[in-house]
Amino acid sequence: MRVVIDTNVLVSGLLTPFGPPGIIVALVAAGRLRPCYDARILAEYDEVLRRPAFPFADDDVVALMAQIRGGGELATAEPLSTPLPHPNDEPFLEVAVSAMAEYLVTGNVRHFPSDRRSGVRVVTPRELLDSGLR
Asked: Residue 80 and residue 86: Cα distance in Å, rounded?
């Protein structure tokens, strides 16, 4: 299943591996979820995961990024016709639309107003897991 994973879900999943975001990260690692991305999303993942506020080792970040690249799908995204309230969220929806991802998984659903989703299902990690995925 193709998904776009917001950075907040990735970080939360690494910090709390047994909660819903952690299960999402584990499903990516197991190849059950295929993360869709572009260069902007990868750059954001890398930058955020390397922040001093987080306890992630450099080698672990490199390994995770390689896992995402190797098991994921690079998308060529086009700009949205209607901007989102938070411009930093736009790459995630743009990639979801372009890659025809089944879901965009985020902890901030409200950042993606329903009238601007272009048909993409935007869900929380819990909602994705409750949809029958495990």
From this structure: 13
Largest pairwise CA distance in the chain: 40
What is the C-alpha separation between 32 and 28, in angstroms, rounded? Answer: 6
Whether domain 2-130 has CATH 3.40.50.1010: the reply is yes
Contact 133, 1 (CB under 8 A): yes
* Percentage of the residues of the chain whose pLDDT score is greater than 70: 99
Long-range residue pairs from 59-68, CB within 8 A, at least 24 positions apart, any chain: 64/14, 67/28, 67/29, 68/28, 68/35, 68/37, 68/42
Which residues are 123's β-sheet partners? 105
Tens digits of residue pLDDT in 89-105? 999 999 999 999 999 99
pTM of the prediction?
Answer: 0.95
Q: 122 pairs with which residues across the strands?
A: 104
Q: pLDDT tens digits, residue range 2-45?
A: 999 999 999 999 999 999 999 999 999 999 999 999 999 999 99
Boundaries of every domain in the chain? 2-130
Q: Please state the φ and ψ torsions of residue 116, each to the nearest 5 degrees.
A: -120, 10
